[in-house]
Amino acid sequence: MAEAVLEVNHLYKSFDGESEVLKDISFSIRKGEVVVIVGPSGCGKSTFLRCLNRLEDIDNGTLQLNGEHYEKEKSRVHAFRERVGMVFQSYDLFPNMSIMDNLLLAPQKVQKRKKEEVRIEAEQLLERVDLLEKKDQYPRQLSGGQKQRAAIARALLMHPEVLLLDEITAALDPEMVREVLQVVLELAKSGMTMVIVTHEMEFARAVADRVVFIDKGVIVEEGSPKDFFEHPRTERANQFLNSFHYEAVHE
């Protein structure tokens, strides 16, 4: 069994020192594994991802990336953030820059890579997400699904060791959801290590190696997709899954 790429031990996070959002979270992910985090709105899923990426400071606990502690790193926080990439629900593309320039910016400025080398790889990634013909267009000219695929390509261009995906389909209509999820499925097949927060239960079942259910800031249950979706061990998980089923109003 592969060793953990990312490991979290006894993580606590509160806001303003009062409202405790995450309580004693311990978690790990192996190289090439896809872990999907599910749970009700407000349970701490997105906060957890932001802690992993050090966009949020933690109160207590340890974070390790390939054996290196980075929960207290200040001087090298940006270096660790490069290694733990993140794609957001809101795309976060620069509106005044073309798609290609959006992709080229961080590898050149942060990683000091040569422009031509980065451009070649950027074109390969845009082709991979079926956006090469859009490389000179601006974000406003793209659909929501296309912008999200561009954001994924931008994250991959930084060569992250772990990719975090936070509700990346939440702002999309159903047709666009499918095109984005297809890209993620292909990344999973290629061996990309990913932690995914989603409300798309069918997608979670299809892509996950392991499902983690969080409620009220704690991990309530985790297991294989088959075990979690077909045989939940806790009453709380069963209640959560049943909330996605509805009886017909009209016969």
Give the structure's gist in a few sentences.
The protein has 251 residues and is of the alpha/beta class. It has helices spanning 45-52, 77-83, 99-109, 115-128, 144-156, 174-189, 201-207, 225-230, 235-242; strands spanning 4-15, 19-30, 34-38, 60-65, 68-69, 84-87, 162-166, 194-197, 210-215, 218-223.
Describe the structure.
It is built from 9 helices and 10 strands. Helix 3 packs across helix 4. Helix content is 36%, strand content 25%. The model has no long low-confidence stretch (mean pLDDT 92). It is globular, with a radius of gyration of 19 Å. It has 251 residues and is an alpha/beta fold.
Number of strands: 10
Number of helices: 9
Which word captures the global form? globular
SSE-based structural type: alpha/beta
Mean pLDDT equals 92
Largest β sheet strand count, sense and barrel closure: 6 strands, mixed
| First-to-last CA distance | 51 Å
Task: Determine the strand fraction and express it as a percent band.
Answer: 15-25%
Strand sequence of the main sheet, in spatial order?
Answer: 6-7-8-3-9-10
Give structural attributes:
36% helix; four-stranded antiparallel beta sheet; alpha/beta; 10 strands; 251 residues; six-stranded mixed beta sheet
Helix-strand layout with pairing:
Elements: E1 4-15, E2 19-30, E3 34-38, H1 45-52, E4 60-65, E5 68-69, H2 77-83, E6 84-87, H3 99-109, H4 115-128, H5 144-156, E7 162-166, H6 174-189, E8 194-197, H7 201-207, E9 210-215, E10 218-223, H8 225-230, H9 235-242
Parallel strand pairs: 3-8, 3-9, 6-7, 7-8
Antiparallel strand pairs: 1-2, 1-4, 4-5, 9-10
